Amino acid sequence: MRGDTVAHLFRIDPRVLGDAAAYERCLSLLSPPERHRHDRMVIEERRRELAATYALVRLALAEVTRTPAEAWTVRRDNLGRPLVEGPVADVHVSVTHTPGLVACLVAPCAVGLDAEQVSPRVPYMRIAEQVFSPVELASLRALEDEPQRTDRFFLLWSVKEALAKARGDALSAPLQRITVTLDDDGRVSLALPEDCAPACARWELRWHRPTPEHVLATCLCTAADAEDAPRDTAIVEHVGLPA
Ligand SMILES: CC(C)(COP(=O)(O)OP(=O)(O)OC[C@H]1O[C@@H](n2cnc3c(N)ncnc32)[C@H](O)[C@@H]1OP(=O)(O)O)[C@@H](O)C(=O)NCCC(=O)NCCS
Fold first, then answer.
1. Domains by residue range for the chain, with CATH
2. pTM of the prediction?
3. Is it the case that residue 226 has pLDDT exceeding 50?
């Protein structure tokens, strides 16, 4: 996939697996460890979500590379990240699942993806105080409208998770020292501390609102072209279970 400067974002509502044939098709694509994880999940909704997630990765890879879904070997690395072993080289994926939404990002560079269901029931200010930077906290507190503030919390959270997943250090990323600013056009500006240089030429972060109840963030770790200011990588969106 090297040289391809396009990323692909696939998303589905896992409730499409309410259709028995679609569910069977997805189950048939799971590796033995994935099937084991699926079978051990007690809550039916979560079980379906897992089947949809693991199947979507292979169906997305198939769609992007025109290689059969059954041919792909995808395993977890020691941090729990999906690692694509082939048959095509240099393909990176990141996945996310939350009630009502499963998504997968495929690109020729390291990627991070996160989606969240916006829920007013989460005690979010307490969480924000632990993981947000002072600037982010101030921007959140400045919003007087409660639904707006809840929405902003989940957007910031999602962006920081996507960045952590792309960095590969989700559990130890210094998220409190990284400030993200959401621009109106869906782009995200980043303020990184000096000792926190990116592992690539630049992070391309974007926020999305795929459904009225979900937020989603993408992070691409891209290389800059010579001295020219790099252009944004195009993200092609695919909605629904690929054939
Ligand atoms: C590991 C973590 C990134 C998972 O995120 P999540 O929102 O709980 O769950 P998502 O559905 O979005 O993503 C889960 C998938 O991410 C992948 N994943 C797991 N660990 C990962 C890691 N270290 N890096 C990248 N991807 C990872 C897996 O494919 C996983 O799916 P599976 O376990 O069902 O196979 C998250 O739990 C975490 O630990 N974050 C720490 C960073 C933090 O403090 N964030 C706060 C935001 S401000």
1. 1-107+235-243 (3.90.470.20), 110-222 (3.90.470.20)
2. 0.93
3. no
